[in-house]
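Dear support,

I submitted the protein below through the web form. The confirmation email said the job was done, but the results page showed an empty box. After a refresh the structure appeared. I'm attaching both so you can tell me whether what I see now is the final result or a partial one.
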Amino acid sequence: MSALLEIDNLRVMFRRPGLVRRPPPFVAVDDVTLRLGAGETLGVVGESGSGKTTVARAVLRLLRPESGSVRFDGHDVTEFGRVPKWYRRRVQSIFQDPTTSLNPSWTVRDIVGEPIRVHENVGRRELVLRVGELLEQVGLDPATDQRRPADFSGGQRQRIGIARALATRPELIVCDEPVSALDVSTQSTVVNLLNRIQRETGVSYLFIGHDLTLMRHVSDRIAVMYRGRLVEEGPAEDIYRDHAHPYTRMLLDAAPTLDPEEQARRRRRRADSVTAAVMTESSQGCSFAPRCPSAIERCLTEVPASRPRAGGSVGCHLAPTLPQTNSRSLTSSSHS
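What the results page shows now:
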């Protein structure tokens, strides 16, 4: 069965202005290939500046890539001139900050009902009923549809954003860090809501984030990006428990832990990483080499090719021999 979303060799560049001489373009995404099936969640994780949001913007056709392709249900998105209406209906988005992504002067009925008005010919009575159903679906009282975003908490505003994304009955929702602006308890509530909606509707998620521990709970597969390149990809549990790339390990180390032995191991790894950065800061090979405590001479001169591994892929010269993280020290929880 073919994938719903296919990203092949995607490359995105940004031209930078110059007063005298134009500097070389900045490569934001370099040769990224990903697949997402119907009803699945693909998590794309990395630090700020890793290129994950740029991938999402290319999927939404908010920018044109330099090369490569983005295919949705067999249609090449990159070849669109003006984005067709059917694509905007079938592919929706949830943004990071619900405060800035909702029009403060509109009521909830206006916000959630706008996609329905644009894509369907419905009367006022049916529109009100549809908005009420959507609000109930995301756990909000339909009687609040005449209130404005300022009357709601951050978690409630994000639920309004989710209801708006569901209004057109999309097949794919691009979630651009939808919980990063929320407190921890609210994050869990919104993630559980998204999981429930997926079970009920069969919608697919392209989920962008920076917290690998959180991404494990929401994703079927995880793709790890660093400086525009895909460094590791595979099933969520494999990436979490049996990862092969040192950058993936660094992302896991950023998650809080109460285990003092694990804290000590992380401090040692961070110290090794700083030493490696000083020794190899002129690296022209692997982009992660300046921060990698395991880097060898080959890493400084040759960009690692992606190789198959454990149901996914990894881009590291030392992948077969890198020590694995002690998964017993990590908090274990099943994918809900």
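Response: this is the final, complete result; the empty box was a page-load delay. Residues 260-279 form the longest helix (20 residues).
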